[in-house]
């Protein structure tokens, strides 16, 4: 009989405790003050071109062009929330020829909006890394948001003749760090 009385008292006491517990008013307007600042890191482009690919039927190909579509920055979410983008490039040349690499940022009408270039020295037997970070903010960021393609224009400079048996390669790897503010 005692357990029954104990359960009744406990059954009354618990709701009474909840009735007298401390509470405060909830402010659902706090969600209007929410500010998220995510950072996204992603690969941008890469290539690994062996020296013999600069030779076709015994003739050196002095200029190579590739124009991939990169329209992620045209997305409404990125246009509204992107506040900065850092592009990182690393080029490793193990070919005994010097090169230049021009990056031309193009809009939907293939009009150049912005360009940057790299001088890539010839390989001399030691590590030959060229790195560059290009920061897009403010007015420069507006140009990036209008970019739909990036033209990679690789030019081989004068030097020792390449053949289909030439060794070495030209490697590019790049990435982008995008800083957003979502309010």
From TrEMBL:
Upper lineage: Bacteria, Pseudomonadati, Bacteroidota, Flavobacteriia, Flavobacteriales
Protein name as annotated: DUF4270 family protein
